[in-house]
Design a protein that fits this description.
By secondary structure, the protein is an alpha/beta fold. 30% of the residues lie in helices and 26% in strands. Helix 2 runs antiparallel to helix 4 and helix 3 crosses helix 6. The longest helix is centred in the middle third of the chain and has 18 residues.
Length: 248
């Protein structure tokens, strides 16, 4: 597999069984980044299922409808938060898989764009292994648009693509955090909260681009996608299992 920069010899895979809470989960990833860059924790892959959350981008907070969007999220049972990374609002819940990949790096900024390409392709490959016709590239009208979004295509309508994975990156001196969210199950609540929040923000998008992997492959679940993701990462680095308690 081509790499944006030299991958780690060993990557600790940590399965977080329960969320710490919507805000605490986001903060914990940033805490891990600080500890990895100083060498207190080694390269780590953290996987968990989050609480219902809408993570707004910094730019969203400057729009006149931001406070209305926040209230719309709460009304629909999603916790509104503002993430450090860029982009627009993205939604997730317990039918999604969050992947936080953290590594130390002497010049983390240099490989930033290459990481988006590398890990976008890695995740698309994992979804293909799970039975999804997946590829990398922005879909016209998608929420939180990105050049390296991972999308899926339905067997009944090859012309219709839906966004399945959003990625974001946080780079600091000495390390990087690459976060990915895969929407696997139960897309209806995610579509509903995105429609409400984007309407409040005054942002145009196409709600038909929001979906989940199980819309394309009925019966596919988070466990199966997680197993495929871990297997794909096994082609990137040597993996070792670690307990979440080792990071607390």
């Amino acid at each position: 597999m081509p790499q944006a920069d030299a991958g780690p010899q060993t990557l600790a895979v940590v399965r977080q069984g329960e969320t710490l809470g919507a805000a605490a989960d986001l903060d914990f990833a940033l805490d891990l980044l600080q500890r990895v860059k100083t060498g207190n924790v080694g390269p780590t892959l953290r996987l968990y299922r989050p609480e219902p959350t809408v993570a707004f981008g910094q730019r969203d907070t400057h729009l006149p409808g931001f406070h209305a969007a926040v209230q719309a999220c709460r009304d629909l049972g999603f916790e509104p938060l503002v993430r450090k990374a860029g982009g627009r609002a993205a939604a997730y819940h317990q039918g999604t898989l969050v992947i936080d990949h953290i590594e130390p790096h002497a010049d983390a900024i240099a490989g930033a764009k290459g990481r988006f390409s590398l890990f976008g392709e890695l995740l698309a490959g994992a979804l293909r292994d799970a039975g999804v016709d997946a590829g990398v590239g922005e879909i016209p009208g998608e929420y939180c648009p990105g050049e390296f979004s991972v999308h899926g295509t339905g067997p009944q309508d090859p012309g219709h693509r839906i966004k399945l994975v959003g990625t974001a990156q946080r780079v600091v001196a000495g390390g990087w955090l690459f976060s990915s969210v895969i929407v696997v199950e139960n897309s209806a609540p995610i579509r509903a909260v995105l429609e409400a929040s984007y309407a409040a923000l005054g942002l145009a998008w196409d709600p038909t681009t929001a979906g989940a992997a199980d819309d394309l492959v009925p019966g596919l679940d988070v466990d199966a996608v997680e197993a495929a993701v871990v297997a794909a990462y096994g082609r990137y680095a040597t993996l070792r299992r670690a307990e979440f308690s080792s990071l607390r």
